[in-house]
Amino acid sequence: MLREHRGHRLGLLLKIGNLLWLRDREPHIERLITWNAVSNAHMLAINEAMGYELFDEHKEWRLEIQAGRRPGTLRKEER
Ligand SMILES: CC(C)(COP(=O)(O)OP(=O)(O)OC[C@H]1O[C@@H](n2cnc3c(N)ncnc32)[C@H](O)[C@@H]1OP(=O)(O)O)[C@@H](O)C(=O)NCCC(=O)NCCS
Known about the structure:
- By secondary structure, the chain is mainly α.
- 33% of the residues lie in helices and 0% in strands.
- The protein is built from 2 helices and no strands.
- Coenzyme A is lined by residues 1, 6-12, 36, 40, 42-43.
């Protein structure tokens, strides 16, 4: 969301709107799973406000690979 529009609970309203839309169309659904990066405190606060509870955590690793360099190798100056 554009910074100038943050702070008006629009994120929460959007997620609630989605849930109401889903409930109308798929009333048999009993459980929902949502996910977020643990670093995204604002989004986690929205999920908690809606009543979601932590159920699992996944760890992910990212490696930037530079052209011409084998992953996992250190240059002399980095050792
Ligand atoms: C997630 C998001 C939409 C929530 O925004 P929102 O609905 O405006 O959040 P709230 O209205 O609950 O804001 C609560 C407070 O946090 C601030 N805030 C919200 N998101 C913020 C952010 N990303 N960085 C800094 N401050 C933020 C608001 O300004 C507000 O401050 P205030 O209480 O002093 O006014 C918004 O953080 C965002 O667009 N983030 C970047 C994209 C993103 O993370 N998307 C979701 C990916 S899963």
